[in-house]
Amino acid sequence: MTLTGRTRALLYASSVDTRRRDYDGASSPSRVAAQLAALNVEWTRVTQTVPYYRRLVAGGQLPASFASLEEFATRVPVTTRADVQSGLAERTSTGRSPDFRRMTGGSTSEPVQLPAWSSENVFTRADTWWARSWYGITPASRLYLLWGHSHLLGTGTMGWVRARRMELSDLLLGYHRQSAYDMRPEKLVEAADALIRFRPDYVIGYSVALARFAAVNEGRRQALRALGLKAVVGAAEAFPTPESAERLGDLFGCPVGMEYGSVETGLIAHTEPGSDYRVFWRSYLVEAERRGAVWRLAVTSLYPRCFPLIRYDIGDEVTLAEGSADTVIGLTRIARVAGRCNDYVSLNDGTVLHSEVFTHAVRPCRDVKAYQIVQGGGAVRVDYLADAPLSEEAAAAIRERLRRVHPSLAAIPLSRVDDLRRTIAGKTRMVITA
Length: 434
Known about the structure:
GMP Synthetase, Chain A, domain 3
């Protein structure tokens, strides 16, 4: 562990202990009362500073406060990603200027840049470290990340500065980042070599990349088990098969956990060792509505945000415990997250790229409303939706970010289309084969 890591563990200890006490022993009635109180406090703030909701309350379409969680869920409309894209300014707080932007993309392939305050991360980090403490992990623990290197895709002076800043931060915190973009077997062998040299306390990675890592490195079981990891945690997407977590646990000889959340929301829930997902209900009011065999989620933030989440349709479907009601307001447990498994793209030289490569390359371009990677016959292109064709400068920036991952992508076609291809169920996959 590093000095910075130890210092951070001491600084965070009090807030993590407080968060643990906040959750432990809370009965159902006290949980509902706490969420309703937090909701009304946040709703007052939202209706004073967010133009869209201020107008609805002033016009009598919505109340100034809610008598129950059910009233809130019944009267307030769901916020969709299309609503966010078309009404971003009107749904953003005018209280103070944003400190940064959350750039989304992921499995939905619909980029959105949400304004945010640094204080949002301060509020929610207690949830993160409380969840990791279930596995014996602290802020002082050494972390190996099998992750996307979006900080290395920036261009110009600021791109260089951000990359160096991230490298310095990782050094001080005791983190090692290994690229999950290229998932060829030889690259995943290199990833195992780096992991063994670094000797971390725990691993976090894209779930698909971790599953492929396990398949490639089965012969390294002894060396990997000798590391004595506290946990391997999948993130950003679901594991590709039900057996993926078991395979990872066998390879490393440690518990395998899962984070659940999104760029827009932050961490909403985390698995407990050997159990299901525990929802951070003091930070989020999560609603679930049955859609056949699964439930669809809507998320409301219960803490100050520059862009408040108000019944936000996160686009995910989950499985709840057997016997759950058709509608749940104030979800505390999730059995399984359905789908959310990103695809990979195969290039004609045999390179296998995680689809997040394209997310990180396309999402900084605000003109792109949605996109799709089309592969077939050894060729790859990006289809996109936009009000007008991309400028030469915007297209060049996307290609330059992709070129840094693989040279053949320097000339990738970028095609503006009227609509993206959908599955029979009406869903838009990020990667399709033509």
